[in-house]
Design brief:
The complex is a heterodimer of chains A (627) and B (287). Chain A is of the alpha/beta class. Chain A has 20 helices and 26 strands. At the A-B interface, helix 1, strand 9, helix 8, strand 10 and helix 10 of A face strand 1, strand 2, helix 3, helix 5 and helix 10 of B. Strand 19 of chain A pairs parallel with strand 2 of chain B. The structure holds iron/sulfur cluster.
Chain lengths: 627, 287
Amino acid sequence: MRVNHVKLLVGGVQLRDGVTTVTDILGKIFTRAGLFAVAMEKGYASTIYGAHQFDPMLVTEEPPVSYGDPEVDVLVALDYDSNPDAPEQPNRDTVLRHGGKLRDGGVLVYDSSTGEIPTGALEARGIQVFPIPARRIAQSELKREIVKNVVMTGALFRLLQFDSDEAYLRQLLEERFLRKGREVVDLNLQAARRGRQEVERVLEANGYQLPVRLEPRPGRHRAVYISGNECLGLGAIAGGVRFYAGYPITPASSILEFMEQWLPKYGGRALQGQNERESIRAALGAALAGVRSMVGSSGPGISLKVEEFGVSGATETPVIVVDAQRAGPSTGMPTRPEQGDLNLVIGGGHGDFPRIVLAPGTVEECYTLMLEACELSDKYQCPVFFLTDLNLSEGKKTVLEDVFRRPQVVRHGIVREEDVRAKPYRRFEVTPSGISPRSVPGTPGAIFKASGAEHDEFGFVSIDPRKRAAMVEKRMRKLDTYLQEDWKPPQVFGSVRGNPVVVGWGNTRPVLEEARLFLQRRGVPVALVHFTHVFPLHRRKLEALFADAGPVVVVEQNFSGQFADLLQRELRIATRRVNKYNGVPLYPTEVAEAVLQALQREGAVVRIGGDSQPVPVEVGRNEHEGD
Amino acid sequence: MNTKGIKLWEENAVPKHRIQWCPGCGDFGVLAALKQALTELEVMPHELLLVGGIGCSGQIRNYLNGNAFHGTHGGALAYGLGAKMANPDLKVICLAGDGDTFAIGVENFVHVCRRDPDMVLLVMNNGVYGLTKGQDSPTAGLGQPDERGSREEHPPMVDALLLALASEATFVAQSFSGDVKHTARMIVEAIQHPGFAFINDFSPCVTYNRFNTYDWFRERVEHVPEDHDPSDRDAAWRLVREFARRGKIPLGVVYRNPRPKRPQRRLPLWEDELSGVDLEPVLATYR
Ligand code: SF4
């Protein structure tokens, strides 16, 4: 029996079956029990009701490297209305879609309220099947359909041999429901107990030996169960952001919700813009008034904001732009991850202006890197982009609380009344660093005229060729200063010298780390070079890093290899590429195999899940959003 | 007039002889009126944020003292909104043209009317895009209703006052920059209004609009009658329609009905206000 290492997958009908309600409860309880839960592979649809939804979760004793491969030990199917005559009904989706991911000897538990599903093929692989009539129990015995998921949760806990004294579940239920009355808590506990009993019944009837177990490790550390978007929101608050604006868009809406809930408690304000442009313009206005400001959106919204990037660059008004990337182009796949916006944020907008692009590699870095973003935007007075993706933004995991250190906020270069008495104030003064003094409107003696039209040092419009050249150079010089003073080199895992080098950026790091370990175990020593400071790149330092490297394989989640192009352009090195763009997150084993393939020949481009046979058109059949 | 006060407004500004408007442009009248109004209210330039639109009229931000910002075409109101939300002590005045406000920026106009931030929008309305040499704006066609509407290329004009009323604006006034004193009066009342104040100022473009000239306006402007109740939205709507039927142009406050406001504080921005905040209340909800 395996202890404290289990991968679960909970699936059901979106909105109806409460898939993430269940996984959120699980994640929270496992975290309280001192274990590590990672649910980063969110599978949901942009239609609201009726589509298939699933949420895999890895639970471990020690912090896992990544969320692991797609194979699961325990499959939990919340969908109940099985109808053998209509095989594409959403009801049996969880088993149909994910049964193949179950490991031999794994566990399937499903809601059998409307009949049992033929599972002979799974049982032939030694899979233990637990049909639990959860909805029927909830409806007819407990008279409350809503507790059907608690029946399943109780069943799952029994299958994991976890919380046998109900202590964790009871505490959570009391926190949530005690204000509604003791009866509500008791009803839920009763539901969980019924789930346990049902499992007992099947265990006895079949003589099953359960393959996995979770043992609590309480009191080891303080931890929270939290998403990337929540962490970056928290980072923004800690880093001094007090104005946030966003327009509803998946998967950035949860940042807006977080900010609406918490910013006012820290004296700030969150604005739901009437459109993407109002959001960023209002944020620029607030920044102009001296307040640290941030906007968040995803690809389509970022495209709409592009014009304002230039305004931020030219008027030297700082703003943090979070881009929670999703699969593009156009509407694309709103609920699927991709790293397809790099070109947009490094190139979007007319003309040349300074900008910085950061991309956190983990949920933890959503917090720590955001602290950097806050300082960088303030110091360099330019747009700072913060690239996550759908899985990093919406995915949740157990995060140790030492991560959340509270920084000393430093305001950079803001002149006060006494300063301008000592030295006349020129808002766009040409300086060696490129950074000019800034004032907050309302400061006597420090009037400024800021404009997106080219201007002189005071901010008055000017097309004088010498002033223009000086002003462009001054603004762009800020990037040299950034590279010297604040750019962080990529993290290097393993030794680059003479070895093949896997390169990645942003949210893929845990998977790439795990893929590297797989390769190492197979006797292929590769290094991993992972970037969080993505643009601009420090050419000299990187040339030194790659000087004696073996073949370079850039792994990213887009079709063209946007970061590989950047690296190739900046460093003039040849890259091989591994790309995945089918909307499914990267997995360690497939990456390891793709890297091996890419190492076989120069200029290789390996497409994971791509280069496939033509897919026949299935007219009238619902698109499978899952998988 | 207080000439010493007026002089203050010429500091930190483009010198008069370098102003780049055509001689006779209506925007000169607005500039004079703005300085008069700010002098009368004893506003200090450092408390002021002038947000200019794109176009001839938006240049005005650099022609007088005060902090200024100038971003994208159609964006002035949204920048102003953010600045005002961040610091309620700022006096924010947005100064834009009719193309900027009613074409590319109409989304902001409609929604900022609804949001009602305590700031002023003065539109220098001349029916054309002057800076790009005279193309029609959405307010083109004033006084020539028959010429428009038969083709998609030339739709009927946007009635700025009715659009503002329909968008729940709480202060709607109209002025004519040929009457500097009255324009200044409107600006004073707009600044004093505790909410979003919109002034539609007819500001003739002497170069590209040869139809709506100073004389054309002088023959048609009429002050809002004394017995008009500006707090009555239906009356305001009727007044605008009735003037239009008579071929006349009302000058004055057409509508004024402030909403109750919740007081707002300046958002924290200094190091001592931001450092070492306690994240415990947030973290507790994720344990
Ligand atoms: S083109 Fe018209 S609006 Fe522009 S400055 Fe000349 S007169 Fe004024």
